[in-house]
Amino acid sequence: MVLFGATGDLAQRKLLPGLFHLAKAGLLPDRWRIVGSAPADGAPTDEEFRAHARDAVAEFGTSKPEGPAWEEFERSLSFGAADPGAPEPLLAAVREAERAVGGDPRRLFHLAVPPSAFASVVEMLGATGLADGARLIVEKPFGTDLASARALNATVHAVFDESRVFRIDHFLGKESVDNILALRFANGFIEPVWNRDHISHVQIDVPEKIGIEGRAHFFEGTGTFRDMIVTHLFQLLGFVAMEPPTTLAAQPLRDEKEKVFQSMRRLDPAHVVRGQYEGYRDEPGVDPHSDTETFVALRVELDNWRWAGVPFFLRSGKSLGQGRHVVTLGFREPPLRMFPMAARSGPGIRNNELVIDFDDPGSIGTRFLVKDPGPAMRLCEAEMVFSYAESFNTMYALEGYERLLLDAMLGDQSLFTRSDGIERLWEVSAPLLEKPPPVEPYAPGSWGPDAIHRLIAPYRWSLPDRD
Ligand code: BG6
């Protein structure tokens, strides 16, 4: 495996610790080597790269970098610098690693580099022959609009055919996202109500408590819509809304997800709230007049038989009240309201809801109405929650990136995004990218600008949870 961007932030926080966890769990192939790569300017030696990996695992990993497992991992790391037109040190490091592995090893390239560097690395892989028979993992964001995504796909496809391309979206590696499939398609009582006859609206809510954490350069050019919505939240929507695939194999699964994207209406800027937290413009590296959004809430509609007329409300933003990952399905009311509510339930009835909380390790809950104990027939709200942590030993679960790295090694594309789907998502996003509504300020620690309540009316956001 060759890791481009091996000294960068993503490799440090996720990839190196994740690869060590996979090695320790015995999930890597019998024989393997990891070659780090980066531009020659300031590139580390093998020893320095191993020390860098040790520090990364110590700071961000789930297991400590010590003992025989670490020593073996460390011995399998090396470094080979590469610049456009000067790939020799990388070629030498790959040759040496392949000699150590023996046989005819398959190469896997991971591009953990800024999008501006994608094309030159891919072209270098093609020109040097390194790409022959290899697989490619590409990080998001995949383009910034339809034209750039098409151009990037063309560059990638000139060297790697689609069956060897693994576009990573780490949300799809989360345990509970897989569990949406299990919940929907393994249980006879769920799927019959998973449609417009029973569901009034859907919420996909990923508020973050953190701000931009020093990533001003990345964030100013990206914003929440491109960073979170067009990637992670739309992909989740695909899983929530898809038809049952014929099997769980990559092609039928991804075909069904892409059909959801095909049925998405082009976004209407009138149904989008863009926000910016107060103080964002004072962050180091941020333009004092910046119009970049740190928050987006929007309404998405699907023109298909299952979901016609059911709005999907998506929200994500930085510096909000809580960091959560929640999908809520709001159910329709029964045809007749026969019962008064008990006073202690507070104002307004919340109809039945199914709440999938995919914070690691996640939970699934339902909210429903029960009789308030006592002589009078009055209703109050109740909740049943299944918690992964309480029901299973989740210690051996893989983190999103780990799961996806493993799948790429195994050649399973089920949880990776596909070129046609990505292009379609940029296509439906075009009206918003062309005419974004102005950013509205919101207080850090809040849930976004006031306009979010108008956006979702007559429903209401399932977060924050009511006490
Ligand atoms: C990344 C975004 O893809 O996902 C970040 O670039 C965001 O801005 C992160 O904070 C959220 O991931 P998670 O798994 O922590 O919810």
TrEMBL record:
Functional pathway: Carbohydrate degradation; pentose phosphate pathway; D-ribulose 5-phosphate from D-glucose 6-phosphate (oxidative stage): step 1/3
Xref: InterPro entries: G6P_DH, G6P_DH_AS, G6P_DH_C, G6P_DH_NAD-bd, NAD(P)-bd_dom_sf
Keyword Cell division carried by entry: no
Organism domain of life: Bacteria
Alphabetical UniProt keywords: Carbohydrate metabolism, Glucose metabolism, NADP, Oxidoreductase
Residues involved in NADP(+) binding: 140
Catalytic residues in the record: 232
EC number, UniProt record: 1.1.1.49
NCBIfam families: zwf
Function of the protein: Catalyzes the oxidation of glucose 6-phosphate to 6-phosphogluconolactone.
Name of the protein in question: Glucose-6-phosphate 1-dehydrogenase
Organism (species): Streptomyces formicae
